[in-house]
Amino acid sequence: MSDFESLFGGEDQKVCSTTYAPWKVLIVDDEPDIHALTKLALSNFKFKDKALSFLDAHSGEDAIQVLKEHDDIAVILLDVVMESDTAGLEVAKYCREALGNQLSRIILRTGQPGSAPEKQVMQKYDINDYKNKTELTSDRLFATVLGALRSYKELHQQACLHLALSKIVHCNAQLLQTSTSHDCIQTLQQTLPTTLPLAELQHKTEVKFAIVEKNDQQFSELGRSTDWPWVEVFKNLKQQTPDPNDMQNVIEDEHAVIFLHCHHSGVCLYLVLEYPEAISDEEQLLLTTLSQNLVITCSNIWLNETLSSMNDELEIKVTERTKALTTANQKAEQASVAKSQFLANMSHEIRTPMNAILGFAQVLSRASNMPDDHINTLSKISKAGEHLLDIINDVLEISKIEAGAMVLKPLSFDAVGLLHEIGAMLSLRCEQKGLHFKFDNQCSESLPVYADQAKLRQIIINLLGNAVKFTDHGNVTLRLEKTQSGHRFSVIDTGPGISDEEQATLFSNFSQGQAGLEKGGTGLEARYFR
């Protein structure tokens, strides 16, 4: 097996009986007997299962004309002295330089060695072998032609390989620029005319092709070169492969079926080819290489198309779900705003009669003839009403926050003076519970700030109110201190404190710790603080 065959040979190919074109040998000599003797000596010659085909030229001019008409001559048996002493040398020069033919093996046969010195002519005219006619026996001629054909075959294969690889690389590069199976088929149809035949060096021949899709026993044409009866070729060749997956290449004479791709759904893709003559060994091996490359390329394109389709579907689902989530959030937000507006309205509706109740209770408590038990009852009514108003105020503030209706009204004021004022008010409540109140001012006697004074007052009063409410013994401290980033207000008490678990939900709506459940409350203050 040659290097070419070992490099490109594959097991996924069925090659049927094929006859190949013979090796062309050009005999250039002005003696007819030389032509006859040469043909007789080589009449039974065969190399690589191919016989010889003889071309005749009886002069240098005839040889040049034959070389123009046949660019695939393997061996040239060339006489030197014909119509001139250098006629043969002029033929060799024309072949190498004018035609650019570096593949044909030139064997110089001369009966006058002195007119063409061996060393000089072989170097100057790129002659491959030099033989004296008197010494060239039948056996020696056989061996000489055999060696020349071996050399020609190796050079031809190398040139074919270089050209074919260039075509395969170009074809794959064109296909890899596509992103869909449809574009891939269209590009393949446009590229194949310049890709096939792969190993054609001398002259361009048309290879008819059809791109066929097979689904079970049904098949359809996706593209073709010209109108030709590919259906019968496809049926005949596919019947010869035992492959149940239909993934095998089949080549017979001038026809070939090349596997390209098989989708997971069972749909397979093929190339059906028809060459002008029997497909050569080199072309068969190169077709296998082309098939292997196209299989990988097509698989990647089909896979990318599938992934792209799945990604598009996923994006659509994500978009739909995002839209649904946005709609749900908008509805929830609208419901929350409506709830907050409702609570704010209801708070106002409750506040009005409650103020009337408290007002009448105060008027009645001032009556001079009111019995003590009635005064006690009126006091309870007043305390309960004030407590209810506090709850209503908290609900109203939270409703404003959630509805986005709260508006801050900042102004300049003295924070220390505000804290003294609040401390004086809370110290009385601490005395009533037997608690000690302290205002710990660690800053200057005056602290100008720009803020919403009413909101700040409410926050500090609520914090201190909770501290007094949940502290039964000890003290409550209001501290003002300077930090690196500004100033901090702190409320410190000796009450039960807040556990780590309770701190996690401290600022949630209506959240209360264990102490809150025991003492009672709404759990709205912390939400307002946040």
UniProtKB/TrEMBL annotation:
It catalyses: ATP + protein L-histidine = ADP + protein N-phospho-L-histidine. SUPFAM superfamilies: ATPase domain of HSP90 chaperone/DNA topoisomerase II/histidine kinase (SSF55874), CheY-like (SSF52172), Homodimeric domain of signal transducing histidine kinase (SSF47384). Residues 24-148 form the Response regulatory domain. Keywords: Kinase, Phosphoprotein, Plasmid, Transferase, Two-component regulatory system. Its EC number is 2.7.13.3. Residues 345-530 form the Histidine kinase domain. One of its GO terms (molecular function) is phosphorelay sensor kinase activity. It holds the Pfam family DUF3369. The modification 4-aspartylphosphate is found at D79. The keyword S-adenosyl-L-methionine does not apply. It comes from the Bacteria. This is histidine kinase. It comes from Pseudoalteromonas xiamenensis.
